[in-house]
């Protein structure tokens, strides 16, 4: 039964990583234009500008992947790791939106902001999602492994009682279930023997008579 949960976890993981990769691929052209700064096409500066975004993205992907693996084992990363992640995410956002802010176009700002922000959110969510889905599998496995509780003696007595049980049989069941701290009442008799209401009064009287001095 845990297989569907694990299958969903794999699907969620793949979808999140696909979204992150597509978002980074979209930002690559914007970063290249930002770094080229109007250089001639196929010039050295124009060609070298294509290296800027992969340089930042590969570092970011390495950090995200490492965080995902360590989170499965309950290991927290240090401050430098988180600083590197947020620096690379912030650098990607600034380089993507710089020209849009400079042009003063709200539409371009939104267009160039969405992919980096999706990467931001997915980067934080993918590790937590994988961790929670792994916890769900562990909880399900633990519940399945728990042994079923055996029925109590009182429930066993009820199970063995049947409509043809005699007065003495009912009295024996009640006598076996009675403890020193129990107050014998018709309601208690009905609880332990499941006899009828009329019979419970007689059984309670008989059992109380046995313990009276």
For the report, how would you describe the main beta sheet?
A: none
Percent of residues in helices comes to: over 70%
Q: Given the structure, what is the number of helices?
A: 9
- C-alpha geometry: rod-shaped
Number of strands: 0
- Amount of beta strand: under 5%
Which stretches of 5+ consecutive residues score pLDDT under 50? Answer: 156-163
**SSE topology string:** HHHHHHHHH
State the distance separating the first and last CA atoms.
60 Å
Q: For the residues shown, what is the average pLDDT?
A: 80
What is Rg? 36 Å
Structural class of the secondary structure composition?
mainly alpha
Keywords: Membrane, Transmembrane, Transmembrane helix
Transmembrane segments: 12-31
Descriptive account of the structure:
Helix 3 runs parallel beside helix 5. The chain has 213 residues and is mostly helical. The protein has nine helices and no strands. It has helices at 2-36, 44-48, 52-72, 79-103, 106-145, 153-160, 167-177, 186-193, 197-211. Helices cover 79% and strands 0% of the residues. The chain crosses the membrane at residues 12-31. Keywords: Membrane, Transmembrane, Transmembrane helix.
Give the gist of this structure.
By secondary structure, this protein is an all-alpha fold. It contains 9 helices and no strands.
Q: Which key features would you list for this structure?
A:
213 residues, mainly alpha, 9 helices, 79% helix
Secondary structure layout:
Elements: H1 2-36, H2 44-48, H3 52-72, H4 79-103, H5 106-145, H6 153-160, H7 167-177, H8 186-193, H9 197-211
Keywords: Membrane, Transmembrane, Transmembrane helix
Transmembrane segments: 12-31
